[in-house]
Amino acid sequence: MTTIQRIWRIKNTLLRLLSTRCLDCGFVAYPPKASCPKCGSRRLIKEELPKIGEVLSYTVINVPLRGFEEFTPLIICLIKLGEAKVLAELVDVKPGNVHIGMKVMATLRRSAKTLDGVIPYVVKFRPLSLGSS
Q1: 20 to 30 A from 37, CA-CA: which of 21, 25, 52, 129?
Q2: What percentage of the chain reaches a pLDDT higher than 70?
Q3: What residues pair up with 88 in beta bridges, in sequence order?
């Protein structure tokens, strides 16, 4: 369950794009993990990811889950940020203008209401060049 208290606790991790790097295998995970998803090591360090990345893949959702109707069409992208891959929403662009290799930048945007009625702001991505919408 997403509540305002949970969002408050993880705000710095989300807003700063903090990740964890495994000191044993080098895998970079976002959001940060307690152990490496690749090798299981607990020898991790926190690192901040770059704010600019590149679209590796994407999908467009035209029939949203309840609560996300106002966000359709919803563009979900796999974005390469440095050595990490992040799954996130792409905003400020029409689905027909999205393409593999598109440069994108992290931005704060409002999200759907939480169960307790709060509207949180979360990291989403937008095209780096404003001419892409």
Answers
A1: 52
A2: 85
A3: 77
Residue 117 pLDDT: 74
Report d(CA 19, CA 85) in Å as an integer. 10
Rg for the chain, CA atoms, rounded: 16
Nearest to 94 by CA among 122, 76, 75, 71: 75
Contacts 24+ apart (CB under 8 A), 40-48: 44/20, 45/20, 45/21, 46/18, 46/19, 46/20, 46/21, 47/18, 47/19, 47/20, 47/21, 48/16, 48/17, 48/18, 48/19
Task: Tell me if the bond preceding 127 is cis, omega within 30° of 0.
Answer: no
Assigned token pair, 102: 């598109």
